[in-house]
Amino acid sequence: MLGGETRVSRRIKLITENYVLPDAVGVVLSGGIRVIGDRFNTEVAVFGAHADGDGECCLPVVNFSYSFGR
User: Fold this and answer.
1) pLDDT digit string (tens) for 6-20?
2) How confident is the model at residue 24 (pLDDT cuts 50, 70, 90)?
3) 53: Cβ–Cβ under 8 A, 6 or more apart, which residues?
4) Do 61 and 47 contact (CB within 8 A), yes or no?
5) Exposed e or buried b for every residue in 27-39, given b needs 16+ CB within 10 A?
6) From the centroid of its chain, how far is CA 70?
7) 31-65 pLDDT, tens digit each
8) Residue 68: CA count within 13 A, CB half-sphere
């Protein structure tokens, strides 16, 4: 797995997560943005796969997270 993120403003990050699949000889690639709130975060991303010359694009992904407690 190789991933990273960089903050572009106080509440916005660019994110990526990429996986190498050794048995399938392929990769899964993703990229998106994370919107950061005080307690509520949202991620909007796109996943794609590439294996042995076949490429599949694109699956949208939306994640929500809420921080309970203090």
Assistant:
1) 999 999 999 999 998
2) low
3) none
4) yes
5) ebbbebebeeeee
6) 27
7) 999 999 999 999 999 999 887 767 777 889 999 99
8) 0
